[in-house]
């Protein structure tokens, strides 16, 4: 009776030893696999013209959880359009899901976009950014889900009054980038400072759903925006909502580029809350009460009511001839995009 117990105990010890050994072998295998993947990705980006660097890389964790820390990472695209610098990039994954990566960006993170756009956004500083990236079996990016708690803009080292919070970007079908789909949302804070208004209780919210389509020559991937445009590329905006109560603007349409790289597009929009907005303008002293009443009467003539009795205006928005127009009225001059 005593002998079988000894054998059982010895077998148990051998089993524990084998499991422990297998545990560490699996961990070392995962670490080596991860190091190889990092080398593959870095080499691939370098061949494509990206400038990528980091001062140190550390791999830690256990067989059930791996973590990779890049110290002082930096990334710049081949044409110098975008440059990102951070104090650290932390990537975590589980060995049985090697193609699902969670990235966090602790410490200082900055993003510099070199682009000719109507409003200079300067240097963007990101706080509490987290991204989830799904890869295919070949390591190509399939989809991403990115959130940032706060984004502030600095122009000439000075913080700008308007900043963003709760920024979210989700993109799918990245395997076929010419037909990718995306959703974007953000809260704009302190927008009142642009109009010398007191801080309101509600923030401005932007929501955007869109996709790329129309490009015909799938055998030849476009090397620039001009190639994409010439191949029939179009940005389809299926849903755009700008909500800064009482004003709510909803729109949808298409956007591309003309021969001189100026935005070219047409949108249909629906505007509601204009009556309450006129009341607020009177209180702020922007519009006299008599003129506001006249404007409200005229706008009501062109408005329609939905099933809930809410009145809204249907207004066309166009981008053509280098001008952004709302209805027949030109609103702003456009600038050409760089031929990236």
Walk me through this protein's architecture:
The chain has 340 residues and is of the alpha+beta class. 23% of the residues lie in helices and 46% in strands. It has a 21-stranded antiparallel beta sheet that branches. The protein is elongated. The N and C termini lie far apart (81 Å).
List the helices and strands and how they pair.
Elements: H1 2-47, E1 51-53, E2 56-62, E3 65-71, E4 74-76, E5 82-86, E6 88-94, E7 97-105, E8 109-113, E9 123-135, E10 141-155, E11 158-159, E12 163-172, E13 181-189, E14 204-213, H2 225-230, E15 234-244, E16 247-257, E17 263-272, H3 274-284, H4 289-302, E18 304-305, E19 311-320, E20 323-326, E21 329-333
Helix pairs in contact: 3-4
Low-confidence stretches: none
Q: How far apart are the termini?
A: 81 Å
- Mind summarizing the main beta sheet? 21 strands, antiparallel
Structural class, judged by helices and strands? alpha+beta
Average residue pLDDT: 82
Helix content: 10-25%
Note the total helix count. Answer: 4
Estimate what percentage of residues fall within beta strands.
over 45%
How many whole angstroms does the radius of gyration measure? 27 Å
Number of strands: 21
> SSE order, as H and E?
HEEEEEEEEEEEEEEHEEEHHEEEE
């Amino acid at each position: 009776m005593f002998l079988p117990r000894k054998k059982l105990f010895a077998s148990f010890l051998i089993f524990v030893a084998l499991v422990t050994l297998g545990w560490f072998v699996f961990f070392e295998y995962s670490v080596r696999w991860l190091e190889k993947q990092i080398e593959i990705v870095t080499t691939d980006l370098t061949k494509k013209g990206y400038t990528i660097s980091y001062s140190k890389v550390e791999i830690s964790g256990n067989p059930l959880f791996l973590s990779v820390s890049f110290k002082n990472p930096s990334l710049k695209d081949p044409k110098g359009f975008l440059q990102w610098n951070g104090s650290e990039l932390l990537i975590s994954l589980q060995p049985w899901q090697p193609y699902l990566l969670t990235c966090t960006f602790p410490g200082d993170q900055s993003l510099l976009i070199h682009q000719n756009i109507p409003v200079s956004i300067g240097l963007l500083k990101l706080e509490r950014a987290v991204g989830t990236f799904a890869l295919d079996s070949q390591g190509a990016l399939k989809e991403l889900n990115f959130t940032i708690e706060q984004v502030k803009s600095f122009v000439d080292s000075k913080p700008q009054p308007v900043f963003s919070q709760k920024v979210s970007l989700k993109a799918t079908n990245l395997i076929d980038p010419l037909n990718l789909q995306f959703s974007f949302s953000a809260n704009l804070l302190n927008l009142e400072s642009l109009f010398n208004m007191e801080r309101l209780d509600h923030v401005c919210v932007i929501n955007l759903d869109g996709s790329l389509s129309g490009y015909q020559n799938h055998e030849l991937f476009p090397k620039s925006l001009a190639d994409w445009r010439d191949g029939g590329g179009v940005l389809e905006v299926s849903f755009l909502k700008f909500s800064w109560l009482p004003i709510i603007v909803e729109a949808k349409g298409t956007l591309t580029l003309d021969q001189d790289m100026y935005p070219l597009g047409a949108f249909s929009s629906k505007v509601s809350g204009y009556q309450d907005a006129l009341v607020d303008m009177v209180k702020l002293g922007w519009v006299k009460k008599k003129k506001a009443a006249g404007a409200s009467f005229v706008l009501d003539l062109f408005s329609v009511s939905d099933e809930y009795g809410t009145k809204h205006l249907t207004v066309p928005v166009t981008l053509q001839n280098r001008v952004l127009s709302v209805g027949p009225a030109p609103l702003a001059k456009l600038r050409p995009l760089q031929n990236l």
